[in-house]
Amino acid sequence: MKRKTSICILILLGILLVFGIWFGLSRRARSNETNELPVPQTQADTEIPITTSTPSPQNYSYIVRTEDAMLVVYQADGQTVYMETGIRTDRLSEDMQEKAKRGIGFATLEQLYDFLESYAS
């Protein structure tokens, strides 16, 4: 019985060691990415106001706009729906509601998710 317990403990320790190494490497890789690319410090820095009349796909990859009192994410072309968020626009400030009517552009998926996360709760 003691031998089975010892074997289980050794296996568990091995799994924890592998997980720790994996976590450390992935964390180090993420910190290297953030060192190479500047990360905006405020939400205002992540928003790129756009207008629907003059799209500029070089500036953004995703556009958040209001549709039926909900936020909808479009791809850079402004017509292909990327995701329906389920976030009601009445959760947004009046200023942000106006921006969402015109469209809010995001260059990266991380910026988009940061923005959506701030209004999803």
Main features:
121 residues; alpha+beta; 2 domains; 5-stranded antiparallel sheet; 4 helices
Structural overview:
- The chain is 50% helix and 21% strand.
- It is α+β, with helices and mostly antiparallel strands and 121 residues long.
- Strand 3 and strand 4 (81-88) form a beta hairpin.
- The radius of gyration is 22 Å and the shape is elongated.
- It has a five-stranded antiparallel β-sheet with strand order 1-5-2-3-4.
Topology:
Blueprint: H1 2-36, H2 43-46, E1 48-49, E2 62-67, E3 70-75, E4 81-88, H3 94-102, E5 104-106, H4 109-120
Antiparallel strand pairs: 1-5, 2-3, 2-5, 3-4
Structural class comes to alpha+beta
- Elements, N to C (H/E): HHEEEEHEH
- Strand % is 15-25%
N/C terminus separation = 50 Å
Overall pLDDT metric:
76
User: Shape from CA axes?
Assistant: elongated
What count of structural domains? 2
Note the total helix count: 4
Oligomer: single chain
Major sheet: size, sense and barrel closure? 5 strands, antiparallel
- Which stretches are low in confidence, meaning pLDDT under 50 for 5 or more residues running? 33-46, 48-55
Helix content: 40-55%
Radius of gyration: 22 Å
- Within the largest sheet, what's the order of strands? 1-5-2-3-4
Beta strands, count: 5
